Amino acid sequence: MIFGPFLFIYVLLFFIALAFLFALIEIHVINYAFTLAGLPPGLAFAALLASLLGSYVNIPVARLHGGQPHPAELITSYGVRYRLPPRRWDDSTVLAVNVGGAVVPVLITIYILVNQPDMLLQALLATAIVTLVVNRAARPIRGLGIATPMFVPPIVAALAGYFLGGAQHAAPVAYVGGVLGTLIGADLMNIGKLGELGAPVASIGGAGTFDGIFLTGIVAVLLA
Fold first, then answer.
1. How far apart are the first and last CA of the chain?
2. What is the pLDDT at residue 209?
3. Cα-Cα-Cα-Cα dihedral of 17, 23, 29, 30, to 10°?
4. Tell me, what's the pLDDT at 129?
5. Averaged in consecutive runs of 10 residues, what is the pLDDT profile of the chain (224 residues)?
6. This prediction's pTM
7. What's the pLDDT score for residue 83?
8. Are strands 201-204 and 93-98 parallel, antiparallel or unpaired?
9. Contact (CB, 8 A) for 96 and 208
């Protein structure tokens, strides 16, 4: 299933931000940040690009029944407008996994943990902290899914990385804790509510939580 989680203007802004990231790489700012996180600079930028492009790709995994369909085509959540995908079958909700918001960030966390196994305990503690905070901040939005304020996960993750990871592991702990904590706290812990929201598609790691996870991958590492 391929559909845009944002209106065109937000996609345009993301690509402008991506061009800005190219400039930052040239002056070694992002280069330095993701070296701290444990990713080679080329791989780090490729992962960010894959996250953005992968946000359009959703892999269906189940169909949920229950809840009245939401009639609106546009949903506003925390100041951002999302366009709902059209219904093509019945009034059920398709549960999907977003490639850019779930698959790519999880693969990055696995890469970091495999290459830095000594920070596993700190990463798990950071994940638990972010999970609790994000779960409290997440809100079910009818017609959309589970949404979170976009700056809560990266800020909490950055603080957790700073205090738990120390000087050596602050950035990777922040990234792992932010990504896994957002996915668990916002999506997985609320998966039982998705069938009641009347959304045509509920995407794990997509829609209202994609912005939090995407920003976590950038902001948490830089802040930590």
1. 35
2. 47
3. 50
4. 96
5. 57 68 57 68 74 82 70 54 55 82 88 93 96 89 72 88 87 90 88 75 66 62 64
6. 0.74
7. 56
8. parallel
9. no
Residue-by-residue DSSP string for the chain: -B--SS-HHHHHHHHHHHHHHHHHHHTTHHHHHHHHHT--HHHHHHHHHHHHHHTTBEEEEEEE--SPPP--SEEEETTEEEEPPPP-S-S-EEEEEEIIIIIHHHHHHHHHHHH-GGGHHHHHHHHHHHHHHHHHH-EEETTTEEE--TTHHHHHHHHHHHHHHHHHHHHHHHHHHHHHHHIIIIIGGGGGGGGGS--SEEEETSGGGHHHHHHIIIIIHHH-
- Tokens standing for residue 4: 């845009």
Q: What is the pLDDT of residue 144?
A: 61
Amino acid in position 6: F
Show the tokens assigned to 207: 């829609």
Structure tokens at 42: 């080329």
The type of residue at 185 is G
